Amino acid sequence: MGGFSIWHILIFAVIVLLLFGGNRFSAMMGDVAKGLKSFKQGMADEDDEKRQRYDEQRRSEPPRQIRQDEPIDVTPRREDSAAPPPRDDQAR
């Protein structure tokens, strides 16, 4: 009810082929394929540029030093919580 059946799609495809012809239709599909290929290549180039900027930034920053006497806090936190997690020596 209100949707396209397989017969509707087949009739539409036949009409499109009659209007545009086989050669022109395949040429249009080739142009669409070239456009998609160009789009994917542009996206890959953009990703490469982002990766290159990230690598340059990582190389320019010195590694962060951690004091040996300070324990490392590996407690998972929620981003929206304002209170710091309790320390081991505090009552929970």
Automatic annotation (TrEMBL):
Q: Which residues lie within the region annotated Disordered?
A: 40-92
The alphabetical list of record keywords is: Cell inner membrane, Cell membrane, Membrane, Protein transport, Translocation, Transmembrane, Transmembrane helix, Transport
Localisation per UniProt entry: Cell membrane
- What broad class describes the main subcellular location of this protein? membrane
Q: Could you tell me the membrane topology recorded for this protein?
A: Single-pass membrane protein
Membrane spanning stretches:
6-27
Asked whether the keyword Transport is assigned, the reply is yes
Return the Basic and acidic residues bias intervals: 49-92
Q: Which Gene3D superfamilies match?
A: 1.20.5.3310
Q: Tell me how this protein assembles.
A: The Tat system comprises two distinct complexes: a TatABC complex, containing multiple copies of TatA, TatB and TatC subunits, and a separate TatA complex, containing only TatA subunits. Substrates initially bind to the TatABC complex, which probably triggers association of the separate TatA complex to form the active translocon.
Q: Which family does it belong to?
A: Belongs to the TatA/E family.
* Classification via PANTHER family: SEC-INDEPENDENT PROTEIN TRANSLOCASE PROTEIN TATA (PTHR42982)
Per its database record, what is this protein's job? Part of the twin-arginine translocation (Tat) system that transports large folded proteins containing a characteristic twin-arginine motif in their signal peptide across membranes. TatA could form the protein-conducting channel of the Tat system.
Q: Which NCBIfam families match?
A: PRK00720.1, tatAE
This one is known as Sec-independent protein translocase protein TatA
Q: Which organism is it from?
A: Sphingomonas hankyongi
The gene it comes from is tatA
